[in-house]
Structures are given as C-alpha cells and as structure tokens.
C-alpha cells in the first residue's frame, strides 16, 4: 500500500491518545483520506493478529482504540490490581432502560422501574455513562437522558446499533409472553 509507512504513525497516535480516535481525525492529522486510514487500520489489525503481539485495535465508540488482547487479561491483572467499581442491580436496570429507550426522562424511567431513580441517575451521570441530551417538549420541560461514548467503551460497542434487539431479548427471557408491537 502506498501509505504503509504511516501504519506506525497510526499505532503511535492510538497509543498516545488512549481513547478511541475517529478515522476522520486520524486522516486529518496524517493528511490522507479516511478510506486510506481504514485500510491502514485493517492492515495493522491483521499484523497484530498474525503475530504474538500483545495489542490489538478495536472499533469502539465510532473510532479506533489500541487495546491489550483479551486473552492476556490474566497477566495484566497480575500487574494492575484494580478494584472494579461494581454497579448495583438498580444502576444496571436504569442504564439498560436508558440505552434501549433513549432519549428518556427520569419520570419515564421511574414508570418502567416502579421506583424513584434520582440517586441512580446521578451516579450514572457521575460515572460518565449517561448524560443530558436535551429537554422534552412537555410541561416542565424535563431533562432527557442518553448514553455516552464511555457507555459504548465500557460495554465494548462500536455504536448503539450493536445493542441486541430488545424484542428478541424479551422473547428469550420470557418465551411465554405474547408477541406485541410497541
């Protein structure tokens, strides 16, 4: 490939940033078009998969991110003893509602869950998993919530399109439920 000499540049940029970098941003920095960036990233992915290297490139949150290979997690865990911040069941339920129903208000979430969600929503905002995405055109103009790029990174999703189909999930979890349209 004509731009092969730029593979190292892409690898260095992804390493230095740490977060996902969109193809158009890489293209701008390298003064090439996004299609060539995608081709170079594909070559890098192939190079990294074909060897005993410890890194790979993932498509995450609309960009490319340099990550350690999942199969090396046991050795990385020995190096870094990180205490994971676990999420409560209430937080997971609320996050799932927001992910599948966004944009959504607190009142709509409370209607689905049947309990107040102020504290849980505040925690999810603090953790950067959800954010305010606007105001609903209704009395009081309540805040609408949606997920963030950190949500996508946390769950390894390239975009919200990668979420499973909610109807299929409901059918798997509750095979006796009658089919219905929302």
UniProtKB/TrEMBL annotation:
<comment type="subunit">
    <text>Homodimer. Homodimerization may be required to stabilize the binding of ScpA to the Smc head domains. Component of a cohesin-like complex composed of ScpA, ScpB and the Smc homodimer, in which ScpA and ScpB bind to the head domain of Smc. The presence of the three proteins is required for the association of the complex with DNA.</text>
</comment>
<keyword id="KW-0159">Chromosome partition</keyword>
<keyword id="KW-0132">Cell division</keyword>
<keyword id="KW-0131">Cell cycle</keyword>
<comment type="function">
    <text>Participates in chromosomal partition during cell division. May act via the formation of a condensin-like complex containing Smc and ScpA that pull DNA away from mid-cell into both cell halves.</text>
</comment>
<dbReference type="InterPro" id="IPR036390">
    <property type="entry name" value="WH_DNA-bd_sf"/>
</dbReference>
<dbReference type="InterPro" id="IPR005234">
    <property type="entry name" value="ScpB_csome_segregation"/>
</dbReference>
<protein>
    <recommendedName>
        <fullName>Segregation and condensation protein B</fullName>
    </recommendedName>
</protein>
<dbReference type="Pfam" id="PF04079">
    <property type="entry name" value="SMC_ScpB"/>
</dbReference>
<comment type="similarity">
    <text>Belongs to the ScpB family.</text>
</comment>
<keyword id="KW-0963">Cytoplasm</keyword>
<dbReference type="InterPro" id="IPR036388">
    <property type="entry name" value="WH-like_DNA-bd_sf"/>
</dbReference>
């Amino acid at each position: 490939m004509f731009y092969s000499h730029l593979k190292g540049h892409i690898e260095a940029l992804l390493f230095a940033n740490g977060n996902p970098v969109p193809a158009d941003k890489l293209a701008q920095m390298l003064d090439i078009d996004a299609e060539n960036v995608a081709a170079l990233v594909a070559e890098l992915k192939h190079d990294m998969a074909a060897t005993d290297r410890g890194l790979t490139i993932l498509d995450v949150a609309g960009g490319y991110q340099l990550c350690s290979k999942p199969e090396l997690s046991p050795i990385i865990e020995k190096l870094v003893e990180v205490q994971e911040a676990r999420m409560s069941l209430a937080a997971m339920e609320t996050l799932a509602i927001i992910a599948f129903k966004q944009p959504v208000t607190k009142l709509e979430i409370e209607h689905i869950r049947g309990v107040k969600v102020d504290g849980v929503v505040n925690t999810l905002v603090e953790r950067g998993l959800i954010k305010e995405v606007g105001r609903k055109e209704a009395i009081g103009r309540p805040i609408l919530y949606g997920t963030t790029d950190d949500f996508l990174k946390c769950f390894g999703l390239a975009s919200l399109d990668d979420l499973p189909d909610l109807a299929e999930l409901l059918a798997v979890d509750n095979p006796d439920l009658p089919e219905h349209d929302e």
